[in-house]
Amino acid sequence: MSYRILGAFILLLGSVIRSSAQNSSPLKPQWVGNVPCNYASDFYFVEVHSDMGSSLSGARTSVMQELSAGVERTDKVSVREIYEDSSTQQYSSDRIHGYSSDFYQLELQVDGESQPIRSRRIDEYWKTSFRGGSKIYEYYALYAVERQGHHADFSIISTTSSYGARGLWRSAIIPGWGQFHKGANLKGGLILGGCAALAAGIVFTESLRSDYARKIAQTHNINHIKTYSTKADHFATARNICIGAAAALYVYNLIDAIAAPGARRIAVRRRNSNGQTYSFVPAVMPDGSAGMVAAVTF
Question: What's the pTM?
Fold first, then answer.
């Protein structure tokens, strides 16, 4: 029975991964409703949303006015026009890391003078539904907009669905926590619920096995001893199955936490005062110990 329960959980987990046919990606990006902090002084992020587009291109066009409003609120200026400068999407084959070069030019009106600034669409997400028999796109996009008087370096911005060890150590402490952290809430809930149910099964079957073992010690009736012994063995087997299933689900939880891609998030390479970008990566030192190495790009 416990093996069937574990199998059902695995099938449900698989269905979670395959159930996103109507979305642009299986998981909603982390930046949706949670605009990243301003990492640099020369640009800022603006999130836009539309639920009125009947096509993807229409949805993309419909958010331009919201982008204008976001820029006007932030820079206290008047946006006269937005037009597309160039648009391409580039993703690695594993879809873990993505780089966008969707550039837009914003024509600002500042103190009666026209000033151009640049913007780039960093990422987008959409899902479809039917409203009144018509297909509707609910569309989200995140733009990086350079600040007035600055020349923003948008090349330091990318998207990633990799979380490294941040999901692993969480799932090692509480099964499913790493999946919750990566945005896979349904999968995390199934793992957490499965582990909790199997733990309850272990406690329950061990309690019954102990109860029958106690009854064996309290009787001298041969027939009762045989009956109690058989039932104690059955519950011991059920307990062992629950232990094995819980261990298998826990191991799956760890592997998934570190290997499975999570919800896309924004990655910004840091820059020091000299304009160099840098990042920290794990490395093996000459003496064989583990450490971190700073990688600086000039």
Answer: 0.69
